[in-house]
Protein 1
Amino acid sequence: MPSTARTSVSVPLPKPGSQSALRERNQQRVIAALMSGGPRTQAELARATGLSTATVSNIVKSMSTTGIVSTAPTTSSGRRALSVILNDNGQVAAGIDIGRRHLRVVLASPNYRVLQEASVPLPLGHSAQDGLGAASDLLDTLLENGGISRAALLGAGIGIPGPIDRRSGTVVQGAILPEWVGINIHETFGERLGIPVFIDNDANLGALAQVTWGPHSAVDNLMFIKVGSGIGSGLVLNGALFYGHVGITGELGHTTINEHGLICRCGNRGCLETVASTSTMIELLGRGGSDSVDTRRIIDRALTGDTATLRVIDDAGVAIGRALAHMANLVNPETIVVGGPLTDLGEILLGPIRRGLARHAVPIIGETTTVCMSSLGDRAEALGGAAVVLAQSGLSPALIGSS
């Protein structure tokens, strides 16, 4: 279970350095200690967090009043003490990942336990209403399967594969789902689901999941890259998700790789997506063949050593590494995590990515940047969505950063 988690959400936040911000950070430190170590006495919490016993006592009293924790008499070193226990109160957070061809929903408790999870296919070119209907139906099914009341839902974190204007919550031009462009996801999903919703780009949620659910909770500077029908990235910089001016960041797939290449869906020519997305791989490997090709078939062929498949993956990986090098030269991440539907390829994809990175990055950056595959597979984006809800509810150890 991770000891820290990081996120940034689209709500008014305490000003850095204010008393409310300090109280929030201290509360999150106490919650982090409880999540990583289980029930503890107030004295143990003071030692684990570095806070004074008086500060811990005040925090525990406040959280007990709001139901975040409960306390029970115990003994410590032969003396009477209070054991502090993190509650989940039966509450759950939903994470929803909507892709070009898939939908995944997870239900998680505040102590980061996945309670229910399922995925279903979506038709290519589905509308926002179709995606919303499928998400609502699958959410209802998981609640019923888990015997969970809808009233227990804290909210839903929803990932969309495309740029989102954080000022308005609308999907903007360039999304993998062109049918969704101009849709206000906050209003559309909020009205249908009847719960608080938090919208983000799926790659941002994937990055959040790596430092929340994955093994990278201690990494302050991380890049997550999702290789799928599109190629996007999420950035954790100095311990918080980075959103830039209006929220359009990490559009790695639209980095120009070949200025004389194919026209991209964004209108430019020779973008990374035109040479390294799963859609491009499927098209290349499907030429002249009678068998249908999908991402699972690509993985199976690669694992059995098919020469053509390995060449396509190698070319794609080197191109991805080249694009990552440009970003790494700018932000100098400690770790780059590769996610998406091709994670089962492991070193078959990571090898060429590392070569491309080493070839085009400043040498010391190429040498000191760790490139690894996501341990969360295709669950990362949905898990990141659940983490956003828990952070916003004050029930996760989130270090909330400004965008």
Protein 2
Amino acid sequence: MSTSTTPAPTRIYPSLKAAWLPLGALCLAFFVEMVDNTLMSIALPTIGRDLGGDTTSLQWVSGAYALTFGGLLLTAGSVADRFGRRRVLQIGLALFGTLSLAVLLVSSTGELIALRAALGIAAAAMAPITNSLVFRLFDDDKLRMRAMTMMIVVGMSGFVIGPLLGGTVLTHLSWHWLLLVNAPIALVAVVGVRLGVPRDTAEGLTRDRLDVAGAALSILTIGLACYTFTSAVENGWSSPLTIGSILGAALGLALFIWRERTAATPMLDLSLFSHGTVRGSTIAQVGTSIAMTGVMFALILHFQYAWGWSPMDAGFANLPIIVTMFAATPISEGLASRFGHRIAAFVGTIFLVVGLLAMAWSVEQSYVAIAAAMVVITIGLRTVMTICAVALVGAMPKNRTSMGTALNDTAQEVGTSVGTAAVGTLIAALVTTVLPDGAWSPELITAYFAGERVIFIALAVVVGLLSGWGALTLTSSRSLDEHATPTEEVTEAS
């Protein structure tokens, strides 16, 4: 619903510089929710010693956040499209900052798991909205493209830089500071959104009733699907718990599809997937997230265990990814403007596949070889993820932009879960089921390098198929307006 009975004034900015306050606030909000995905992973051994947690409970310190975050993205996007994107984002930021302070009261791993799950809920209220609000700041296509690019780079940097920040903080401070720092960041972001982002108008929101049943089924389906991969790594694919989770997710998906096809006001209009851009962008984003997560997961073990590097050194080893994310802007924008979204995204997929195959060769070489493969992979990630995110949001009806970014984020979260589970399962099958304490033996290191080669080749095949197929369904237009006609058709049909 509208936040006011009279239309709120729109605030269009003539440049990125003029929009520094709202754009900075949105980037900050996106960064803090993404960095929290990986920030705690490097602190798990320290947390285990401090709180006395076992291996399973420590896995859930990371898993609880991903589970609630991934399960609630679609629901949060649907709520924001009805009750106001700026309003929901401010509530999410306030909750995220306040909950982060609660880490001072944590005295057991169970309490920390509950806190991480609650933070995932707050982050889900932020993620689908930050990108969609960028479109409201500008009416120029090139500015929208650059602003969306900036948002995606910041988000990807947050995901990658988490272990680096975590390792640096743990060198000097308690692990509690990894969460406490969220509070002032969230406060600054709330102020920036409040002062710089225009209020929602009635015309920009949908008046449809909230599909509560559809929301519940989406949470059940995505939650069980995410847990399936966690359980597979922890208990095995043939365990009753994993099989039950798979069957539950399948049943939930079937019920969700039936509900959305029969509901008068569905949460997710499934007819949108008949639009090639929506369908293709979603598939491609799953592929890119599988690649990014799989590479990071394998290299963390490579640097810290096989090579014996410290957590901070392993974090700094990811710098080529971070630097390339920013440096590759002319490449991705140049490809999009010259060849259009379809060819540009497909070229990005080629970079991804070549980079993954190069990584398979470089694992037994020097760090320089690995860094070079990182650069090639990141150029591909940067190009595909940016173009598909812009195309997906641009293809959605104007009153469903939050749902568009929710679909984008959900696809990435599914890819993250698949990538982590796939690499974890392959390591267990090809190398060892238990990572030994202390230095690895030469035999284990050799086995790990051989396993990595198989992993990166497998990732190249899977990602090439998913992202390549998705890229070829995009349009060949060079601007954000190529989807105006399909969007209008969807709007009229609804």
